Amino acid sequence: MSTESEGKQESCEERKSRFVSLIRQLSHTMRGLKLKDCCKTTQVHAYNPSDSSKLGHYPTTINSILAESAVSLSTAESFLPYGLPRTHLFEPPVELCLKSVDFVESLAKLYRKVEMIQDFDKSLVYLEQYALLYSLGDPKLLRRCLQSARQHAVDVHSKVVLSAWLRFERREDELVGSSALDCIGRVVECPKAALVHGYDPNSVFDHCQCHEMYDFDGNNNNLLSSEKGGVAGIVCFCIGNEQVNCIRGKIAALSGPLKSMLYGDFIESDKERIDFTHIGISVDGMRAVDFFSRTGRLDSYPPNILLELLSFANRFCCEEMKSASDCYLASLVSDIDEALLLIDYALEERAHLLVASCLQLMLRELPGYLYNPKVLNTFCSSEARDRLATVGQASFLLYYFLSQVAIEDNMMSKVTIMLLERLKECASERWQKALALHQLGCVLLERKDYKEAQHSFEMAIEAGHIYSVVGIARTKFKQGQRFLAFELINGTISEYKPTGWMYQERSLYSLGKQKILDVNDATRLDPTLSFPYKYRAIVMVEESQIEAAIVEINRFVGFKVSPDCLELRAWCSIALEDYQSAIRDIRALLTLEPNYMMFGGKMRADHLVELLSLHVQPWSPADCWMQLYDRWSSVDDIGSLAVIHQMLINDPGRSILRFRQSLLLLRLNCQKAAMRSLRLARNHSTSTYERLVYEGWILYDTGHREEALAKAEESISLQRSFEAFFLKAYALADATLDSESSSYIIQLLEEALKCPSDGLRKGQALNNLGSIYVDCNKLDLAADCYVSALEIKHTRAHQGLARVYHLKNDRKAAYEEMTKLIDKAQNKASAYEKRSEYCDRDMANSDLSMATVLDPLRTYPYRYRAAVLMDDQREIEAVEELTRAISFKPDLQMLNLRAAFHESMTDFSRALQDSEAALCLDPNHNDTLDLYSRTRIQALKNT
After folding, report:
1. By the 8 A CB rule, do 382 and 419 touch?
2. pLDDT in tens, 292-307
3. Is the dihedral of CA 328, 331, 337, 339 positive or negative?
4. Label partner for 122 (CA 20 to 30 A): which of 112, 459, 755, 843?
């Protein structure tokens, strides 16, 4: 490997020749990749030199690389063939979700809307809530919205779509061996329960009866009694050379047209033999008609006979027989192939329930069957939507779900455009139109259809979505109208209360010092926006201050991990020839997005890891375990992720490593990636008892605690294992504990510790056991647990031990214990926050200020500072402290506290609004419910 000094001694031609050779070598390696692998990506905003959502400009020729590279020609350049990012083409993506300029007011309005309408009309309101809350990125909150929408759904169509959506959010399709008709045992996701019309809020969260067959020949099909119509002789229906004898009165009773034919003025009324050869029904089909006319039941006829009955019923308007056939056929659809085969028949015969059953299979197989030609033909065109509408199966709900799946899979595809067009056609309410038009505008913008995108954004603004002004400004900028874009955003800042995204957007169109001022204002108003950090870092890279750029990126990565920031930090590390750090970050981002493409989609990230690994010392399996222990004990979650990723390359079937990966991802608040790791752990399980444990964790993390406990107990019945006992104890501890249940959890954790495991997990179990002992006021036993955990390098046990010292009235020892954690941990925000509880006010404020700097998403520091200001009777400042944080983190606790402050200031209207917004986030929060009741009464008195 050439050093930088050696490179400087080369002639210009030699340097150029060597660099061209390196580029060719890299290009040769890339040609070895499959084309589909190079193009395939799950990123909504993959970096692309022709894309607006990238980190900079990537020159495509050797000369431009030589001209624009910001670092000396060295070995690092072989890994940066497209150069470092540039600020002049670096933009944040336009967000695809609904964004309100006054989020709290919007939440409050939604809560009032839910409270005002009848239960069976609330389903779409909860869907609107889902659309509004999507910008918060909280999967559990979004899942609860979908569950509430399903709970209040009345019609079969809504139930089918929402239950499929809930399944999609849990990615059940990724579980090996799972069927599309599997469910978790709850009515909300049960495919059979979805096919039953009606609203029953009392049973919707009950366990379903999937193991029992629905009685499709029972109440639904027993529509004709054996006495119906009376006997009026025999009529013979001839079909070809065969005949079927039927009871004339029974056949006549099936419908008005048949009654007119057999008893009216038609010539058939006088005939005992009627030719049905050309009616379109077989002999077996006519016998089934006869059987139904006499019994009102359908026996186990094959689907082709049932389809004949359906067609016959439509031809002669036999509504009861049609309903019975429709219902019975719907119950027989058991896999996607049957659904794809039957959907056209169902649509042609307008069999509402059969269509719903077929759609259910299609939707529950997403995203796998999204691009199946039959599926596309069913959903995508205007004609397809009209066909679905004739049977009540086209809705905004359906196309909202489909378009979300398509956007996540491939934002820029033609399929995504078509589905969003159908979404726009189905939109009726203002929020629906705003969402459909805004998302369509975002996709058109990515596809560089600037005029059409601008038109969509303008219509979205007409529907009330102010944030779409960002889309208009971006399209104008792309069309060379920088000044108009600047004026548009500047006007928005003047008209509305300024927010971080407004200044972020204006910075794109500002010049000189104003640009960096806008970027800094964006961070001041919303420190959770990643673009300002990346922009400042790239400015530093352009000024050859690469170490400073890494420090700037670390400010963001310290509290919010994202693949694009990890990629930027990896680039900087490569430029410094710190390949070990670069590998760490790329491995971590591959954990978040396994198919990630580097350099604007030009190179697979895993391939770059392979190239970089040639320049670092390899680790043996033993080295990896040592590295993992070191990083785990130093609370270096990103480093731990990288080590586990490397271990999985050598041993991809190791379930326990996948499980550890999921724990780290949850700690980093990367819930989707964590669930993917859990599903992989489950799929690679080598034993039934192990598989049950991971299924239990999946259920627990998606809010199904009882089902998780059942999995744990089943696993223990097969094999006593650490993880099964730990899962059961963890799930039980989630509830309110009395002395008896606490003792039982202690017993479970002790049983877990007796089972084989490694120090990493035993440290966690000891830590949890210590917490239970503290809750039971057994402080000495708790201290023993924490000390034992620390002996095996479970560093977080310092926090538990500090709590024990505090409860023993030794605040100094507690403070010192937390100081040890701060010294050891790389992620220190929570440690500073906790240490603040063990010192005086001035020192506490200092620690909490540091916690906010390290992690602005932590809400306790804001609440503490606000409470202190309120105690000092600085009421306005206390409210402002909370308001500043709520603007980018609308947290339940902060809204509740601000509502209480407003109440104490006799500002009951604002107190009411805050409590309503908080209840929109959690309608069962008791403290807020009490506050809401009080302030509502006072607000009414003052009106």
Report:
1. no
2. 999 888 877 888 899 9
3. positive
4. 459
Q: Which backbone phi and psi does 242 adopt, to 5 degrees?
A: -115, 165
pLDDT band, very low/low/confident/very high, at 76 (cuts 50, 70, 90): low
Looking at residue 712, its pLDDT comes to 96
Which H/E stretch holds residue 898?
helix 892-904
CA triplet 465, 471, 473: central angle to 5 degrees?
A: 115
pLDDT (0 to 100) of residue 39: 32
Query: Positive or negative CA dihedral for 357, 363, 366, 368?
Result: positive
Identify the CA nearest to 692 among candidates 709, 668, 671.
Answer: 709
What torsion, rounded to 10 degrees, do the Cα atoms 23, 29, 35, 37 define? -110
What is the C-alpha separation between 594 and 751, in angstroms, rounded? 37
Over the stretch 882-921, which tens digit does the pLDDT of each residue have? Answer: 999 999 999 999 999 999 999 999 999 999 999 999 999 9
DSSP helix/strand/coil, 244? strand
Pairing of strands 273-275, 234-239: parallel
Q: Which residues contact 447 (CB under 8 A, 6 or more apart)?
A: 412, 417
CB 183 within 8 A of CB 210: yes
The CA distance from 728 to 766, in Å, is 15
The residue to which tokens 């560089």 are assigned? 448
Instruction: Name the residue type at position 183.
Output: C
Which 3 state secondary structure label does DSSP give 603? strand
Which residues, listed in sequence order, are joined to residue 244 by a DSSP beta bridge? 237
**3-class state of residue 237 by DSSP:** strand
User: What is the tens place of the pLDDT at every residue in 212-231?
Assistant: 433 333 333 333 333 333 34
